[in-house]
Amino acid sequence: MQLRTVLPHSLKKTSAASLMAVLALSSTGLLQPGYAQIKAAPPAPAKVSQPVDVNKQTQPTASEATPSQIPAETWRKNAPKVPPPREFKLPTPQVYTLDNGLKVELVEDHRFPFITLELGIKCGSTIEPREKLGLADMTSDMLLEGTKTRTSKQISEDVDFIGGGIRAGSDYDYSMLLASSLSKYTDRMFDVFCDVLLNPTFPEDELTLKKTNLVEELAMRRAQPGFLVGERFAKVVFGTHPYSEVAPTPTTVKAITRDDLEKFHHNNFIPNNSILVVVGDFDSAKLKDLIASKFGKWQAGSVTSAQEPQLPIQHGRHIYLVNRPGSAQSSIRIGNTSISRKDPNFFPMLVANQILGGAAQARLFLNIREQKGYTYGAYSHVDARKEPGAFAALADVRTEVTAPSLEEFFYELDRLRNVKPSAKELNDAKNYLAGSFQLSLETQAGLAQKLLDASLYELPDDYLQTYADKVMAVNADDVRKIARKMIDYDNLVIAVVGDAAKIEKDLEYFGPVDVYDTKGKLSDDWGKQPKPGS
Amino acid sequence: MSNRKRTLLTLAVTLLLSNTTTSAPATTVSPVQTTISVNGFEIKKPLIPVTERFTLANGLRVVLSEDHSAPVASCVIVYDVGARNEKKGRSGFAHLFEHMMFEGSENVGKAEYFKYIESTGGNVNASTHPDFTNYFEKVPSNQLELALWLESDRMRSLKVTPENFENQLQTVKEEKRLNYDNKPYVPAEVKMEELAFDNWTNQHPVIGSFEDLDAASISDIRQFFKTFYAPNNAVLAIVGDIDPTQAKALVHKYFDSIPSQKIPAPPSPAEPVQTKAKYLKVDDQHAEMPAFWMTWKAPPRREGDYYALGILEKVLSTGTSSRLYQRMIKGDQVALSANASYDERRGPALFESMVIVKPTSTPEKAREIVWDELEKLKKEPISQAELDKAKNQILRDMFSSAGYYTLQRSVGRAELLAEYTSFFGNSTFLDKDIEGYLKVTPADIQKAAQDIFTKDGVTVVDAVPTHATTQAQ
């Protein structure tokens, strides 16, 4: 029962937020196999709990805790010797380009009667007008709400009938149309897929409903401390850059018209800006014919590029506190901007982040959760996007240990900058990254996502093949160098969501504190009693 | 097709047919799949080819399934213990104990379990359920022995110290604050389960209460370990890029010397038939929108209307063409979300519908619509096309990339093998279950709806937002 998600799956399926979360994670290579997949309703859903881990401490003697009837078996003392890795080679996709510029990548997989399609388009929220935030995602989302020959309901019926699933959404830099089905219905899957991609009608009534629902969903997201802390953090770190907007507002959603969607779709959903990846139980020759007949008529266009403002420079440490009275915990996010996906420091950055807070064996978790017990989990993330994304350390901690938790965050951030990681720490982090990358290729969606990512970010052709080698080549100096560069220790942005009445005073020890309400407004008088009659 | 041969994802019909290991033991089960047809649906049997099953002298049951399509090996151990084995006043115990299993054993230090696995790039985790507890490791295939060394060490010599115990007690409390108390709708959902069941064995939450957790003593914990974490109460499944002969030898090496224990029978989970509707209103300080649950008692796994209810869950709320979605989100626009789910257990279970209500409507109005949809299912048989759609979705659950139980993942296959062996003594019941779903008829659906969705048998819980978080204090 624990960790049961109560948020209904229909919300998850239609919510761009969940799609974006998956994309963001996968694009940084931090996707842990098994955890970031959107959950399908299984015969009996797994309720997997967060791991439990502990810090290295003095061991109690064996006699004190081990039942005496256990026979001594000294041969068990050391971990077994590891044989060399078994031979394994990444599948090589068949790659080709249609006349209209659509890049296609195919991998046959005959283990199960299933097929997975992922289409990525190089356009996202960074090119939408600021007064119409949410336009890119709404355009993607509305693809599934009606075509020249299918109503919204018919699209749903057709997809559900073939044991299929289809989702669309836009992130900051990219839009995606993702689908899968039982492979015996491959023709029907491609038929619906191309219909929604090429012939959407964006019906007015469906748009009205989507907008109404999105406005309500935005209100619900405001109830989540995780949303509030992410919103405040991004606003400060990214300033006027489009990456600063983690979600549209009710006003910008209401401003979106059917005409806006048609234009955005017409101008940006073009084959010469797109990549199609198909992994599954198919015959390549036949599938190529199908792709030619379905995608061949897609008209090429000219690519829109965004002019994006400079990222802001932070001066000194500053605390941005979102007051959430009654909050049982404080949600903390500390960090700066990081690097872009194509940055040559990408691999050192991944390793540095891994050592700091990439997993339950990393420093933040061992310190703040295991040693101090302040939290259920403390981690860090690197979000390397088309342009520099954010680097952040984060945790949800008990209200009364908010300030002590901040101290530990600062300690760990400083230590990563100043002290070389041990050989074992470095090695563990690298093995983790290389191994989890390899293990994530077990599923069709896992492989398709990696192939699509590499193509969208325009990474070198040998990127996936050499990923593990590049991780393993990172050394301790690389880690310290990138830590010094990415952790701007004196100018860290600190966002906190919690009960201001209980934590504001303590936070002032770390820097000037601005208090916001949960609507995102700066509130100077948060501590004052409401005036009678006002 | 040389390209295909090098493809990691190409499983290999060749693999399935070429079990040429010369030392293959006599007990090896032939993993050849055959295609069968049920009501026009073709499926391969067995869905998960088992290479070998065997039982150690101490009672540990073991299932091996060889598959070289990716250089990955997954181990799952299912212990036949969950919240239902807890005594009154000790709720949350099974889950607290699951945490203790990562606190070190004779040869594995405190922080080390996760470190060992994660430093290989593998995954490790566990979860506690009302009727079982599972542990898994997914590792690069050359690291199989490491996983077996770790699992066997804690099964034979877990260290239960006061420090570890106190630390994990705090961690579990934090988990409760984070994932229950601080989230919209979750506290109300816990109340719903407490109200819907009448037998304490079923109704108490897996996470337990702070009072019970505080009352737990270290000797309770030690006794719990000795009683339930014995080889004869466990099933081990190993799936993936393994040499079965070698894997079997390793299992003997690491698990043979662990003694078996006497396992007490779990308390009876029997539930009385509900004869009067139940209702509860719960204030929710984190919710922005009102929500409610409508819940009915439902049969255990593989009994009574089990398969029909699995199909009904799909018909009602899987996919955007489902009945509740089309009616409540699209048509009448009364809900932000509307779900139906069958919370399957080995004992009495629940069929739940959860609806988040739009501000323009009311919970009362939305409930009338849910009832209306359920009445339709009772009155009219569903069409063959709608039934076939639901069955295709059952197959999707098995074969897609998403979800813990998908066959695309070695962990999913290992989990299914271990659970079926633990619960029913036979992993081939998975094939029988899929057949069971595919055999369901429109009349079965209608009968199940009539059996389950009664006016007297319902438990309704309203979660009412208090908007505490958005008001100035």
The largest sheet of chain B, given as strand count, sense and whether it forms a barrel, is:
6 strands, mixed
Mean pLDDT of chain B: 89
Give the fraction of residues assigned to helices of chain B: 40-55%
Indicate the mean pLDDT of chain A: 85
Q: What does the overall shape of chain B look like?
A: globular
**Which spans of chain A of ≥5 residues are poorly predicted at pLDDT below 50?**
1-68, 529-534
Radius of gyration of chain B: 24 Å
Class computed from helices, strands and strand pairing of chain B: alpha+beta
Biggest interface in this structure? Answer: A-B, 141 and 149 residues
Q: Biggest sheet of chain B: strands side by side, in what order?
A: 3-4-8-5-7-6
- In total, how many beta strands of chain B? 13
Structural class of chain A: alpha+beta
Shape of chain A: globular
Number of helices of chain A: 19
Radius of gyration of chain A from CA coordinates: 25 Å
Number-wise, the strands of chain A total 12
How much strand of chain A? Answer: 15-25%
**Number of H/I helices of chain B:** 18
Proportion in β-strands of chain B: 15-25%
Produce the secondary structure layout.
The complex is a heterodimer of chains A (534) and B (473).
Chain A: H1 9-14, H2 16-27, H3 62-65, E1 94-97, E2 103-108, E3 114-121, H4 135-142, H5 152-161, E4 165-170, E5 175-182, H6 186-198, H7 204-221, H8 225-238, H9 250-255, H10 258-268, E6 274-280, H11 284-295, E7 318-323, E8 329-337, H12 346-357, H13 363-371, E9 375-382, E10 390-398, H14 402-418, H15 423-439, H16 444-456, H17 463-472, H18 476-486, E11 493-498, H19 500-507, E12 513-516
Chain B: H1 2-6, H2 13-17, E1 34-38, E2 41-45, E3 52-55, E4 61-66, E5 72-79, H3 93-100, H4 112-118, E6 123-128, E7 133-140, H5 144-157, H6 162-181, H7 186-196, H8 200-203, H9 210-215, H10 218-228, E8 234-240, H11 244-255, E9 278-284, E10 291-298, H12 306-317, H13 323-331, E11 335-343, E12 349-357, H14 363-379, H15 384-399, H16 410-424, H17 429-439, H18 442-452, E13 458-465
Helix pairs in contact in B: 3-6, 5-11, 12-15, 12-18, 13-14, 14-18
